[in-house]
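thought: fold this chain, then report.
action: predict
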Amino acid sequence: MSKALQEFFSKVKNNFEVATKFKSSHTSGGRILPSRTQKNDADYELRIDAGELVKTKRNVVLQVNTQAKSTALKDWLKKQGTHAKLATASFDTAAADPEAEARRVLDKLEKEAKANI
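observation:
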């Protein structure tokens, strides 16, 4: 199972300016990354959605895409439902080092997701 999670976080770290994405304006419940396409949904299997912005803290939510191919992710999705949160974290939009803050958030999401699968 952790293979799908590792691949997701590796792709995210290599393909996106995560701090910039997290700091951008988002509607609560909207997707932060990757962009919503059938190809991305199948390739990434997971997504990070925007939660509520409370003062300078942007809540972010890791969710499983319905197009996930990994057996473990599909099983988790069947058991938990399509709107279940695999992991959550809070990004400080006012952090002095946004890149370090983004890495901290991604590490927290990955650790929490591994524990929840």
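thought: worth noting. The helical segments are 2-15, 18-23, 38-44, 71-80, 98-116.
final: tokens above.
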